[in-house]
Amino acid sequence: MEVAHGVSMQSSQQQIVSNVQGWLQSQKPVWLCTILKTWGSSPRPIGAMMACTLDGELVGSISGGCIEEDFLQQLVDGSLKSQYDEEAKPFIVKYGVTAEEQARLKLPCGGQLHVLLEYIEANNSNREVFSRLLDGLENHTKVSRVVNLESGEISVSDNSSDSSVSIDEQIMTHSLSPMYRLLLLGAGDVAKFVAEMALALEYDVTLCDPRPDYLDNWNVAGVEKVSRLPDDVVRERFSNPYCGIVALAHDPRVDDMALMEALKTDAFYIGAMGSVRTSAARRERLPELGLSETEIARLHAPIGFQINSKTPAEIAIAIMAEITSVRNKTQA
Fold it and tell me: Which residues of 259-288 are buried (b: 16+ CB within 10 A; e: fewer)?
């Protein structure tokens, strides 16, 4: 039995691509803004996007508020379209170049953003591009949006770059990442706090526990609950580099069954809760399940950063901090 709560989640990039694709399908042209460079303190990272229709429908963020307001004002007064009409190709706007502008836009001291603005017409070519981008993200594969800065033509590449945005001569490559997933094993208090924090960090979260008495009494809005055997769930849905697997059941029948399969996958993070002694005993058991020393070495156990945590909430903080660290190193 599976019980789903809420709707399927999307990463911020996926939400923007999905909205742009929908607007183009509805014959609405779109302004798309992409951060190319930052200096000093920046409210949003390189590669962050914002999209907007001519009617002012907006999704995404490049500053957290003030630049968006400035952008919408230029959209209303027509100055954006005037800048585009001068050369009829993407153009770069530099925000925060002067101290006065930093103050007006409420940017942090020294903060500066270079933003690429594209006017995307609702034609068949652009609709096909954003449909392909959305398909790739929904299938948990990394795809790139390739923009010819001279012509404005957009295409799709399956090759991913080490950086979010790269520019080679007049070609910009913007690497897009799919939604990251977390599989939590064991319906307990720690899993509740981990799930809530993971949702806030834009993970798609699934809770698996084959023990009905545990699962029926565990609920976090937005988390899918699954009562199937954990090794089957890992094999079918959590075997790619955008997945993390977190064993929290404190029951070898649940945890070890999942780890037996998880440690053979490409999941970016695999961890198991337990003391030093419990973790040592687990490492002694795992070879009996057919796992090699190299595979077992991938296991984070005891799980999380060691912060002398005692309560379920503190343990969850330690776990999500370690997962975040590992994920960021993987992305680097």
Answer: bbbbbbbebbbbbbbbeeebbeebbeebee
